């Protein structure tokens, strides 16, 4: 099952790993490996990438960042193929991304001449970018009866799905609200009526997909390989200004 019906799919620039992810998921569908195992895999790949970045093995860092993006897509694909969606997997995925994003910017601050305050600002900008992308994407998925594991407004602890434990959902959701709640509130404040507005056009979703973590990691990978590590933090600070542009465009439709 796809995240969106065919009639409403758009070119997702952050989802370049999907074809390989489907191959991986199909190979794993008759095994005992679960989507959670795959999520652990992308967490490990991301940590390895950060370690390679720290030691200036930039080609290896790029490889493992791209592998992380592929596995990040594969866990959801496997959940759909096995028909085992879960809030446990959804929140564990998001928390893993948050941890990796922190590690990335801590290491970037360490290996460049950029001040710590700018590293924090870039991290916050990157998180807000991803929040806007996910917000619009989840609106589409809910409106057109696609995958609805993610909710538009994460305002209360969800009821555990079949095959998962409520206690796990409670703990992971608590951490999700602690780490992501402020970013969600900022985006809701900026564009809280998006869910009630007109259909988000495909061209706008393609533009906003550059805020997806897969595309963000691709940008980081390319800049590392080109020897532009010093410019990664300034780039994400400046690119955060497009949050206001995309929201303004959405409101004008």
Automatic annotation (TrEMBL):
One of its GO terms (molecular function) is phosphotransferase activity, for other substituted phosphate groups. It comes from Arenibacter troitsensis. Belongs to the CDP-alcohol phosphatidyltransferase class-I family. One of its GO terms (biological process) is phospholipid biosynthetic process. The chain crosses the membrane at residues 32-51, 203-225, 231-249. This is CDP-alcohol phosphatidyltransferase. Pfam families: CDP-OH_P_transf (PF01066). One of its GO terms (cellular component) is membrane.
């Amino acid at each position: 099952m796809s995240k969106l019906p065919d009639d409403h799919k758009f070119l997702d620039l952050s989802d370049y790993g999907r074809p390989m992810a489907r191959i991986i998921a199909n190979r794993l569908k008759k095994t005992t490996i679960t989507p959670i195992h795959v999520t652990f895999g992308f967490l490990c790949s991301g940590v390895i990438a950060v370690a390679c970045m720290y030691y200036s093995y930039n080609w290896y860092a790029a490889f493992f960042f791209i592998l992380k993006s592929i596995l990040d897509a594969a866990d959801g694909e496997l959940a759909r193929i096995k028909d085992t969606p879960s809030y446990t997997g959804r929140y564990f995925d998001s928390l893993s991304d948050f941890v990796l994003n922190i590690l990335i910017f801590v290491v970037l601050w360490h290996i460049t001449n950029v001040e710590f305050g700018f590293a924090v600002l870039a991290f916050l900008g990157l998180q807000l970018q991803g929040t806007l992308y996910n917000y619009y994407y989840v609106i589409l998925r809910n409106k057109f009866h696609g995958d609805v594991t993610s909710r538009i407004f994460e305002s209360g602890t969800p009821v555990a799905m079949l095959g998962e434990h409520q206690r796990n959902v409670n703990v992971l959701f608590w951490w999700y609200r602690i780490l992501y709640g402020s970013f969600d509130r900022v985006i809701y404040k900026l564009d809280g009526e998006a869910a009630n507005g007109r259909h988000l056009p495909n061209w706008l979703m393609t533009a906003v997909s550059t805020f997806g973590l897969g595309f963000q990691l691709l940008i980081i990978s390319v800049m590392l390989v080109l020897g532009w590590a010093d410019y990664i933090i300034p780039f994400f600070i400046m690119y955060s200004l497009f949050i206001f542009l995309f929201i303004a465009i959405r409101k004008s439709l």
